[in-house]
Amino acid sequence: MFWKIVGALIVAWIAFMVLGSVIGFVFKAVLWIGIIGGVLFLGTAAYGAITGKKQSKRITR
User: Fold this and answer.
1) Which of these, 10, 11, 12, 54, has the minimum number of CB atoms within 10 Å of its CB?
2) Which long-range contacts link 28-35 to residues 24+ away (Cβ below 8 Å)?
3) Residues ≥6 apart with Cβ < 8 Å to 30
4) Rounded to the nearest 5°, which phi and psi values hold at 9?
């Protein structure tokens, strides 16, 4: 009976270790994708703001 409990605890510990590493990897991947997306968004917005100032649009009547 003792060995069944120890075996169950070892299996549960291994399962939690695998699950934790998978969740950690997914979290890091999503974090880096968000950082890269934010940098690209800010770069595109800055480029649009810089190039948009050259073209002055006036409303004429």
Assistant:
1) 54
2) none
3) none
4) -65, -40
Longest Cα–Cα distance of the chain, Å, equals: 93
- pLDDT one digit per residue (tens) for the chain, 61 residues: 999 999 999 999 999 999 999 999 999 999 999 999 999 999 999 998 888 765 566 677 6
Count CA within 13 A, CB hemisphere, residue 54. 4
Q: What is the DSSP letter of 53?
A: T
Distance of alpha carbon 37 from alpha carbon 43, whole angstroms? 10
DSSP character at residue 55: S
Q: Is the pTM of this model over 0.90?
A: no
Q: How far apart are CA 10 and CA 53, in angstroms?
A: 65
